Recover the amino acids of this structure.
């Protein structure tokens, strides 16, 4: 079907695939300096510089920069940490704040011109973040309740006849130790990956249509317009995913702190 | 507190259902692979789906006064 | 073009749970909005309905990969 549509252009359209995510190294053959790594480092520098600059000359009447920094901080502290975790929230604000700003910056790099690559569309970055969250919420729970009571609380729901535990205990264990970190990381990864792929399809497709015969040239503005619209949609998704990752981390910590029954 | 709690409940419901299906369906699939049959995976998935829904009921659906103070 | 029809089937089968989830929460939200004190009664029902609909979607997802 593809060749039938685009015969006039010479050379078929190569649909974007996972190969488009394997970017070549920047310097020679050093596999560790690729664009995602550079973007992650850049995001760390950007976030640090921004918040140091925003908080350095803190005044009662805030400057614009301080106001921007403080509103992001207040959002994470009040809406995410305090409302979800409860009275012990202050200990976890630094982690949640770092997580939120780091993911948000890296996601938004996906639609910033020239950068245009979300580092989180490489699954290893979300994995690392999910491992941090995993270790933190289990460590919090173990420190608060002790190892054995915590495991007992996970494995045995109260109020169930004994034989049913054979059915339920594997599910509970899998939920806490496998599915939670896995879905946490895969949700972020899949959203960033699919979003980037979607943008690639529309922008590259529009570009390819532009090289085709006259009829196809007329269609290509639609593809570009759609691509631009999807870019704004992507912006929404990127903010949402950063929020959800942080929210779920906060929820898991809250669950670890809560006294069950 | 309430809204966070509700969202958390929804995500953990999804997690329970997914892990129930994966664990018991996976066991059924392994049994199929081992014995050369074809129906254990379906049995496992039904069992896992049922068990995880029971778990969801235990956690979130038990008693209208419920919504245990987390 | 490569790929499997299973995923098309899964896409079709996910329409049902998607609509169901939307309807469940639409009803739940309007119920709570009309009568906020009914929240504790409605919440477990809404969650169980969500779990049932979600289970169907996840069944489809797993079967799309298994079959």
């Amino acid at each position: 079907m593809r060749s039938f549509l685009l015969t006039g252009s010479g050379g078929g359209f190569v649909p974007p695939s996972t190969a488009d995510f394997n970017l070549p190294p920047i310097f020679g053959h050093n596999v560790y300096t690729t664009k995602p790594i550079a973007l992650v480092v850049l995001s760390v520098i950007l976030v640090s510089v921004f918040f140091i600059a925003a908080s350095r000359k803190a005044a009662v009447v805030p400057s614009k920069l301080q106001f921007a920094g403080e509103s992001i901080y207040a959002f994470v502290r009040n809406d995410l940490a305090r409302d979800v975790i409860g009275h012990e929230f202050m200990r976890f604000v630094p982690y949640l704040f770092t997580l939120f700003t780091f993911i948000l910056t890296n996601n938004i790099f996906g639609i910033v011109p020239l950068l245009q690559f979300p580092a989180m569309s490489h699954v290893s970055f979300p994995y690392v973040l999910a491992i941090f969250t995993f270790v933190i919420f289990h460590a919090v729970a173990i420190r608060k309740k002790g190892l054995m009571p915590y495991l007992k609380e996970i494995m045995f729901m109260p109020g169930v006849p004994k034989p049913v535990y054979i059915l339920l205990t594997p599910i509970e264990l899998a939920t806490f130790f496998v599915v939670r970190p896995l879905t946490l990381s895969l949700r972020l990864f899949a959203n960033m990956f699919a979003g980037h792929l979607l943008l690639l399809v529309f922008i590259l497709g529009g570009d390819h249509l532009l090289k085709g015969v006259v009829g196809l040239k007329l269609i290509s503005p639609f593809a570009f317009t759609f691509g631009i619209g999807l870019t704004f949609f992507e912006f929404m998704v990127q903010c949402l995913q950063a929020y959800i990752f942080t929210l779920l981390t906060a929820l898991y910590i809250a669950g670890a702190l809560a006294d069950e029954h | 507190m309430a809204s966070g709690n509700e969202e958390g409940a929804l995500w953990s419901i999804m997690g329970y259902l997914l892990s129930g299906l994966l664990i018991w369906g996976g066991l059924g699939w392994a049994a199929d692979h081992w014995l050369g049959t074809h129906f254990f995976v379906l049995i496992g998935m039904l069992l896992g789906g049922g068990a995880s829904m029971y778990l969801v009921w235990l956690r979130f659906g038990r008693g209208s006064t419920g919504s245990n103070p987390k | 073009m490569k790929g499997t029809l299973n995923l098309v089937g899964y896409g079709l089968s996910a329409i049902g749970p998607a609509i169901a989830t939307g309807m469940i929460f639409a009803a739940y939200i309007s119920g709570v909005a009309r009568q906020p004190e009914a929240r504790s009664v409605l919440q477990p029902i809404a969650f169980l309905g969500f779990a049932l609909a979600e289970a169907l979607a996840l069944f489809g997802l797993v079967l799309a990969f298994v079959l």
